[in-house]
Design goal:
single chain; 2 domains; alpha/beta; 42% helix; NAD; Rossmann fold; cobalt; 370 residues; globular
Length: 370
């Protein structure tokens, strides 16, 4: 396996229970760190990867075999198509047919959808085996791989079935971003921007200072943004792993964002949908009288500089509202949104009146009658 080239940044994440602490490593050439994160007791490893990363999954499997592990692969559909119970059942079948015990492990190689389903498989097989995430997308590095949330989609919505299952470690190998299409890189950057608005204004300043440099995945700027994004998330989930309070703030932009993803049958990238969702949340806070005009416009400026969408089709509101009623933050008939009072000051806003939401939606709607 490759050895690190250059500095490796280690970001600790603290769990609530013994054995839930882990490290997120950020750097180049990190695959050689995988055996250390797997631990000494692991004998069998299932490498879960999407169809598009077949060669990468095979390389990881062969390298693990070279280190003495019994390694297997499970190839799953790409992106959100892989987050179905049938795919999880296929992985459980591979684990069972190869005699995986509670001391064995799963390794995810891919984007956020892969770490979500692989984590769910690890959380449920024998009521929990170790999992190490090797995210290969920016979104996976700064969002899905960190925090221990796992899940699959159902016909009723995204991530409605899942479990909290902290990984044994996360390898954010920036070399894997070299071949990532620019569109994938920039949509993943929406989650980094989110971290900037809810907790770390320096992220916004860095992007505003040189938005073109964000397009170079191997730049020092992207590395700093990845590290800052991971630190924000690590700090929040260390304080509230199971989303009993503070962790809800990570859902900034996600209430409408998830509804858009569902409405688009998951053909929109998660980051693109969250981008629209953040502008909606900002407009909602302005409607509530708590967020200044310049901060609302800053959302459009920063996200627009990355080529991310900030509007959505006006005639889709009834469908979006129905999906949002099933959001995990909803309590009874009361929709709840993460909003800002200012940069780095997030809070929950409960909105009992759908008319307020509809009026706010007009501010981000494409082609809305005026």
């Amino acid at each position: 396996m490759s050895e690190p080239t250059g500095t490796v940044t280690t970001i600790p994440v603290t769990g609530e229970r013994p054995g839930e602490d882990y490290e997120v490593l950020v750097g180049h050439g990190l695959l050689g760190q995988l055996p250390r994160l797997l631990g000494e007791r692991v004998q069998r490893v299932l490498v879960v990867h999407p169809r598009a990363l077949r060669s990468t999954g095979d390389v990881v499997m062969e390298e693990l075999r070279g280190r003495g592990y019994q390694a297997f692969t499970a190839e799953i559909p790409d992106a959100e198509e892989g987050k179905h119970v049938q795919v999880a059942a296929f992985c459980w079948q591979v684990l069972g047919q190869n005699d995986f015990t509670r001391s064995d492990a799963v390794v995810s190689v891919g984007g956020g959808a892969v770490s979500d389903v692989a984590g769910f498989v690890a959380a449920t097989w024998l009521r929990g085996v170790r999992v190490v995430h090797v995210p290969t997308t920016l979104l996976g590095m700064v969002d899905a791989a960190v925090g221990g949330k796992t899940g699959i989609n159902t016909a009723e919505g995204k991530n409605l079935v899942g479990a909290f299952h902290p990984p044994a470690g996360v390898l954010c190998d920036l070399d894997t971003l070299r071949t990532l299409p620019e569109h994938e890189l920039l949509t993943g950057m929406a989650e980094v921007v989110k971290c900037g608005f809810i907790a770390d204004e320096r992220i916004l300043e860095l992007i505003e200072g040189d938005p073109q440099a964000v397009r170079d995945s191997q730049s020092g700027l992207v590395r700093e943004l990845v590290e800052r994004g991971v630190r924000v998330k690590a700090g929040i989930v260390s304080a509230d792993l199971r989303e009993s309070g503070r962790r809800e703030m990570l859902n900034y932009g996600h209430t409408l964002g998830h509804a858009i993803e569902h409405n688009e049958r998951y053909q929109w990238r998660h980051g693109a949908a969250v981008s629209v969702g953040m502008v909606f949340a900002a407009e909602l806070a302005r409607t509530a009288g708590t967020l200044a005009d310049d901060v609302v416009e800053r959302h459009r400026t920063v996200l627009g500089s990355l080529g991310l969408p900030t509007t959505y089709r006006w005639d889709q509101w009834p469908r979006l509202l129905e999906v949002m009623k099933r959001d995990k933050k909803t309590r009874g008939n009361l929709l709840r949104f993460v909003v800002l009072d200012a940069v780095a000051r997030p809070r929950i806003l409960e909105v009992p009146d759908p008319a307020i939401l509809f009026a706010t939606y007009q501010e981000i709607a494409e082609g809305a009658p005026r």
